[in-house]
Amino acid sequence: MIRIVLPIVLLAGIIKGQQQSELVAVDRVDLQRYTGLWYEIAKIPNSFQKNCYKNTTAEYTLRSDGKISVENTCIEADGKKNVAEGVAKVVDAFSNAKLEVSFVKVLGINLFWGDYWIIGLGDDYEFALVGTPNRKYGWILSRTPKLEPEKLNQINNILKIKGYDPEKFEFTIQE
Question: What is the pTM of this model?
Answer without folding.
Answer: 0.87
